[in-house]
Specification:
Alpha-Beta Plaits; 28% strand; single chain; 6-stranded mixed sheet; binds flavin mononucleotide
Length: 174
């Protein structure tokens, strides 16, 4: 198998009101997890009301086929590939897919990687996009529950990761 990692960003065309956005992302995640599990694709997704950035990793053919479906999806648009390259190991092997949204609680991470507290993925190269997605997902996984917590949903690919991350949790409410 040739392992590849593909990173892209796109414009969010989902309903931007907060509760609705969380529900719509949950729908995307449900289908993604089922499909990615079948295709042995791992990855992560970060979103705001304006943007998505996603990393997909797995066998080259499986990733190309999945990305072709994703590009046709009307729930987002202006899909721009940041990078697609061969990888030695999976960086997001914990999850079939996990998603977290921008929030005031994690805005500092966006400032660190995007140069502003808003999510501006067009400024990111492949490494920075992967670093941001990993940082936001790990921050969310380890943040105690708050009423203002951003949307967070994951499905573990590696069950050991659950015990390796003692404060991890799965929350689907926005
Ligand atoms: C931002 C975004 C990310 C998505 N990520 C994935 C993904 O990781 N895997 C996947 O199979 N589908 C993903 N989808 C959904 C696909 O576009 C498509 O709707 C789905 O794969 C169709 O699956 P189905 O034929 O089983 O209904 C994503 C869609 C959007 C808008």
């Amino acid at each position: 198998m040739s392992l590849v990692r593909l990173v892209y960003f796109s414009r969010n065309r989902l309903d931007a009101s907060r509760g609705a956005l969380a529900d719509r992302v949950t729908e995307i995640l449900s289908a993604s997890v089922a499909n990615n599990q079948r295709a042995d694709i791992s990855g992560g997704l970060v979103f705001s009301a304006e943007w998505f950035a996603q990393v997909l990793e797995g066998d080259r053919i499986a990733v190309v086929e999945t990305f072709a479906r994703i590009q046709r999806d009307a729930r987002h648009g202006d899909v721009s590939t940041i990078e697609c390259r061969l990888a030695d190991t999976r960086r997001f092997g914990f999850w079939w897919m996990a998603a977290a949204g921008w929030s005031p609680q994690n805005a500092a991470l966006f400032r660190q990687y995007c140069g502003s507290e808003t999510f501006t993925p067009c400024r990111l190269d492949g490494d920075a996009a992967c670093d941001l997605i990993a940082a936001v997902l790990h921050h969310q996984m380890n943040t105690p529950a708050q009423s203002t917590a951003p949307h967070w949903l994951s499905a573990w690919r590696n069950p050991d990761a659950k015990t390796a991350a003692p404060r991890s949790r799965i929350v689907t409410a926005a």
